[in-house]
Every structure is written in structure tokens, then in C-alpha cells.
Amino acid sequence: MSRDGGFSVGDRSSRTLYDVRLVRATRRAGLAAIVAWDAVVDASWEAGQRVVFDDAIDTLPYDLGDTISIRAALTAVGLLGDDGLIREESWASWFGVADERRESKRERDRAYAARRRLGNDSSPADGRSTTPTGPTGPTDRSVPPREAPSRKGATTGEGRGSLLETLAGMGLKAPV
């Protein structure tokens, strides 16, 4: 089975509109610079490779006006290279990380499927699975449960220890 190299959803910063380079490009070329930049980023994520400015904006359902000045503004502020592509360093830091994460997930899925196949091949004659059904996901970050503090006499004050004892019982140090 072949898979495309792109993503239908890309990793995007929630602060894109505040990126100083995009703000400067917008001051030079107007709001169309934001739309054009978004089109280039989205097209690149979808394709799984950097897409040229002209190809990305040609697919938009509306006219951005003077695209030559928009491209020049995005290039002048360093969002695009002279070739009309997202700068290689930026692209690698976004897409490369996401692609590695996806490949790691695929590898984990393949290993899981292989374990399941082995488990199914050696299942008992009665059809019961020998595959453990414990918790899934990483357990190396698990925190051992702590005993809940006693609530005895919580409303009357009876059975309460001092603040220092309570903090120590919680594994905390007293403020100085």
C-alpha cells in the first residue's frame, strides 16, 4: 500500500498572525500577504513538500490582486526564498518533526500488528486470546498512587496534624 507524503492537517502555530515577518509583509502588501502565506503553507503540508508560491495561490478560489508584490513582500521579510518556496530551514523544522512523529507511530503500529499476529497464531484451541488486556499507552511516566490524607475530624479540627506535618506527608517542604 502506498501512502502520500503529505498531511490533511498540518502543525500550525496559533501565533502565526503575530509573526513579525508576516506582520511586516502585510504592511508592505496588505492582507493578501496573509492569505498567500497561508495558501503556501497549507499546500506544502498537503503535498508533503514545499510548494512554489505561484502554484499555491493559483488554486485559490479568489483573486489576490498584485501577486508579484505579495511574493516580493514575503521574500523580502524572509518567509519565502528567492525560489518562491518556504525556506528549507523552516520547512524542515515543521514538517520534518511531524513526519518523524508519523513514521514513529507507523513503526509502533507495525510492531503492534506483528505482536497481535503472533498472539493470534498461537491462541488456545478454545478461541480465547492470550493477548494481555492491560492499560495501553506509555506507562513509564506513571505516578504511583499516594494514600489520601485522613479526613477524620475534618470539620472539628480533631485528628488534624500541623501544617508542617501535612506538607511533609504530601512530600512538600514548608515555605520559608
Task: Show the helix and strand layout.
Layout: H1 20-29, H2 32-47, H3 53-58, H4 67-76, H5 88-121, H6 163-169
Helix pairs in contact: 1-2, 1-4, 2-4
Structure description:
The chain has one domain. Mean pLDDT is 76; it is low at 129-143. Helices cover 47% and strands 0% of the residues. It is an all-alpha fold and 176 residues long. The chain is flat and about 75 Å long.
Question: Summarize this, please?
Answer:
47% of the residues lie in helices and 0% in strands.
Distinctive features:
176 residues, mainly alpha, 6 helices
Structural class: mainly alpha
List unreliable stretches of 5+ residues. Answer: 129-143
Estimate percent helicity: 40-55%
From the spread of the alpha carbons, the general shape counts as flat
The helix/strand series, from N terminus to C terminus, equals HHHHHH
Largest sheet geometry = none
Q: What is the terminal separation in angstroms?
A: 63 Å
**What is the number of beta strands?**
0
Average pLDDT confidence is: 76
